[in-house]
Amino acid sequence: MSEKIDWAYTEIVKDHFLNPRNYIMGDEENFKADGEGIVGNPICGDQMLVKIKVKDGKISDIGWKTYGCASAIASTSALSELAKGRTLSDAEKISAEEICDFLGGLPKQKFHCSVLGHQALKKAIENYKSKITEKKS
Amino acid sequence: MIYLDYSATSPLLPSVAEKMKEIIDASVEGRLGNPSSLHSAGVFSKNLLETAREQVASLLNCSPEEIIFTSGGSESNNTVIRSFENSPILASEIEHPSVLEPAKRFGGPFLAIPVDNLGRINIDFVEKHLKTYLHSKTEQNRQKTEQTQKNLKNHKKNTQNPVEPPKKILISVMLANNETGVLEPISELTNLVEKYRNQGLPVFLHADATQALGKIDINLQELKVDYLTCSSHKIGGPVGIGALFARNSAPFSPLIFGGAQEKKRRAGTSNILLASGFGEAARIAKEKNTPLLFEASVRPLKSYLESELKKLHKNLRVLTPSSPELSLPNILNVSISSVEGESTQLYLDLEKIAVSTGSACASGDIAPSHVIMAITSDPEIAHDSVRFSLGLDTKKSDIETLLEKLPPIISRLEDLSTLKPTIQKKLKNP
Question: How far does A73 lie from chain B, in Å, by closest CA?
Answer without folding.
Answer: 8
